[in-house]
Amino acid sequence: MMKWCLLGVMLLAGVDAAAAPGRSEGPRPRGAPEGAGLERKAFSKSPRNQRAFRIDHIAAARLVKAEYAARRVLGLRIVSGRQGPAYRVKTLSEQGVVKFVYVDAQTGDLSD
Fold first, then answer.
1. Which of 68, 84, 101, 103 is most open to solvent, judged by the fewest CB atoms within 10 Å of its CB?
2. Please, what are the domains in the chain?
């Protein structure tokens, strides 16, 4: 038991020592980390990365629920269809049958 107590005290002392700067270190710099300006932005405004969908995932789920009221919406995923991007919505009927409904991301058209 004593061994575990000593180990815990040593670990806590090590964590405190690592968190605080040493005497010769001086204060740590604040602000942006090094190279902060060099990262690539996740949401770029370039046309290649921009998804200009008229229908978002919430609206796609609502369209399916409005059309197929007896089914439960289990999930959805964006897929590339023949006419462009579409949402593949996974539904469950009252009888336990899983079916997929596709929602066009530009027009909101539904297809089985």
1. 84
2. 57-111 (3.10.450)
